[in-house]
Amino acid sequence: MTAGLASRYDCAEYLGSDWAREGLWDENAQLWLIEPSARAEEDAAIGFLQIGRPGVDGIGFGYRLGHAGLWAYHPMEQRFQWLAPT
Fold first, then answer.
1. How many domains, the chain?
2. Which domain holds residue 42?
3. Which of 21, 26, 54, 67 lies deepest, with the highest CB count within 10 Å?
4. Is there a contact between 1 and 23 (Cβ–Cβ < 8 Å)?
């Protein structure tokens, strides 16, 4: 993740954690449940920095541009869901 991208999203707790350095790989699912920061992806069109996913259903979780807290994005419904303050 670039420094410019990190400064635009309220994700300091993620960047300061082991999750940002190591991520969380699920061997059985063959899936990064939490992405290392080097693999985090921004969808600039919707202002969303995705850092993980709960499975293969397309839902991602991460940070919204201009909003505090952790959010889920449901792409099929094109809607955000607030999850937690940190």
1. 1
2. 3-84
3. 67
4. no
